[in-house]
Write a structure and sequence with these properties.
The structure is a homodimer. In chain A, helix 1 packs across helix 2. Helix content of chain A is 62%, strand content 0%. The radius of gyration of chain A is 19 Å and the shape is elongated. By secondary structure, chain A is mainly α. The longest helix of chain A has 24 residues. The N and C termini of chain A lie far apart (52 Å). The first copy, chain A, has a domain of 129 residues: Tetracycline Repressor, domain 2, CATH 1.10.357. The interface between A and B is large, with 39 and 39 residues. The structure holds a DNA duplex.
Chain lengths: 201, 201
DNA sequence: TCATTAACCAAACAAGTATTTGTTTTTCTA
DNA sequence: TAGAAAAACAAATACTTGTTTGGTTAATGA
């Protein structure tokens, strides 16, 4: 569940107003968390991004940590949906993984603030909701675990290490990637290729 | 140069007293920056770690950022020395890389606070000294660039991407690594192996 | 021995922090 | 169109932050 739970009419889950600024708020928070970092972003920053006073944010979210949690939730939902849709048509395990990794890379590099937060803001930055954040991350990674489990690999290959290696490499692109040169898709394909086939001659 | 530059006698670079607590200070800062993060660590935290008042820290370092810079400098010096010593005896390029990666991994995983800071605290956390921090990082990575340049690889391999992939994977171990299971050395060897030789069957 | 000064303490400072409270405006609905 | 709830403001709260200032102690070298 996301957002706040007000007393709602029985049938509809939520009775919100048309002029609702929860989403703009989340967008602003995601943008700032992604670019400046969680701790470095103040409630003033977030509020002023959409012309709202810092105190007013607390009508929608009961704390800064809850705001981060909401961003995380929306991030996971989005990236999960996109990923599952992308691999739906594929059959070959290696091809499936490649498509998944390409999608993942594109999502975290194409200025998607939400995904950027999910990858870049580690759960330990918000101790009180650390477990929830970790659970959300795990929920996403479960998909990749499955994909790698189905991979035909040489004997003795540690699939868990393989996943951590691939994900570590991909997620760190966020640190050095700059638009205009190599594309996210190319990066992803290359990384998968360097693992699948030998690099040495 | 590290530390402060006071008026020193002509011959010696520094005329310090015996009871000098600069090093304990750096150790405390490194420890806290590594575990809690830069922004999350206060000058009070650092001071009280060695029984010193926060204001007193400013006798040795003129700001929190300068303190981080000093930690960075010591980190680079240490990890560089260790790495160069480790690869000195090796001849084969792949073997050389493997030894280098093993050393690097051991350094950042074996509770070495300094290296932990250098890898985990990104330069943009301290904007005023961002350039200096980046330069220090680059100075270290230059060694790895050279090692990878000498690697005999298949045609079409992008050596820069290869380095970013390997380093990204290795540095991200910091996030999930836990003592007691697989060793840093084993992780490093495995990662290099997964790149060198094919994973697919 | 004694002036020097490195090294620290004690105490405050000014600015910024997340958050709370009471009040007002806006918007929907009955 | 009145009334109620939603959504925001205005202003303060309680606290933490990095940093500064001026005084104190003790090691050092001339």
């Amino acid at each position: 569940m996301s957002g706040k739970s007000t007393s709602s009419s029985k049938t509809t889950t939520k009775a919100r107003r048309s002029h609702n600024r929860v989403q703009p708020l989340l967008d602003a928070a995601a943008k700032l968390f992604a670019t400046k970092g969680y701790k470095e972003t103040t409630m003033r920053d977030i509020g002023s991004e959409i012309g709202m006073l810092p105190g007013s944010v607390y009508y929608h979210f009961k704390s800064k940590q809850e705001l981060l949690l909401a961003v995380y939730e929306q991030a996971v939902t989005g990236i999960k949906t996109r990923l599952l849709a992308a691999i739906a048509d594929e059959q070959d395990p290696w091809r499936k993984l490649e498509v998944a990794v390409v999608t993942h890379t594109e999502t975290i590099l194409d200025q998607n603030d939400y995904a950027h937060v999910m990858i870049g803001v580690l759960p330990d930055k918000a101790p009180e909701i650390q477990q929830e954040l970790t659970a959300l991350r795990d929920g996403y990674e479960a998909i990749l675990i499955e994909l790698i489990d189905e991979l035909p690999v040489r004997k003795g290959i540690d699939r868990k290490l393989l996943r951590l290696m691939l994900l570590g490499a991909i997620n760190s692109t966020q640190i050095w990637y700059q638009e205009g040169t190599i594309s996210p898709e190319e990066i992803a394909r290359t990384f998968v290729g360097y693992i699948k086939d030998p690099v040495a001659k």
